[in-house]
Amino acid sequence: MQISENSVVNIHYTLTNDAGNVVDTSDGREALMYLHGHHQIIPGLENALLGKKAGDELNVTIAPEDAYGARVEEAIQQVPREVFGNIPDLAVGMQLHGESPEGPMSVVVTAIADDFVTVDANHPLAGETLHFAVKVESVREATTEELDHGHAHGGDGHHH
Asked: Are residues 96 and 58 in the same domain?
């Protein structure tokens, strides 16, 4: 079966950046399972996998606009230090999660000064060209339940 809309796909992958550093990999873990056509992986990778079948291997380079987008300078902000008063061990590199008027958001602390904390809401891979080495492990049709839920379920079913 070829990968198409509403296929349940299992892939093994290694993601590297332009410098050749491994950013993420499924090596040593279970294959990544996703429901194709439902925006559960980045668009560039999903498009590259369309039409592939179990056993296929591919190397794909994905531009930022087909991955996590360009870096947006407006997503970097200085926030008054007192906003973080309840975080005693605040440190550069810390990832924080919160609510915004647009919904849930994550930021990374990039600098700490006496009066302000600089946070970056860009995805850590925004602006990066991504390189994937992928092996398609399996492809099957999604069940009615998976389509109703909008995600793939593992071999032992799925319990909400």
From this structure: no
Beta-bridged to residue 140, according to DSSP, are 8
Q: How far is the C-alpha of 6 from the C-alpha of 151, rounded, in Å?
A: 9
Q: What angle do CA 140, 144, 146 make, to 5 degrees?
A: 70
Domain check: are 83 and 100 in the same one?
yes
Calculate the CA dihedral of residues 138, 141, 145, 149 and round it to 10 degrees. 70
Q: Report pLDDT digits (tens) over 118-159.
A: 999 999 999 999 999 999 999 999 999 999 999 998 754 444
Q: Are 46 and 26 in the same domain?
A: yes
**Pair 60, 44: CB distance under 8 Å:** yes
- pLDDT tens per residue across span 43-78: 999 999 999 999 999 999 999 999 999 999 999 999
Q: How far apart are CA 124 and CA 95, in angstroms?
A: 10
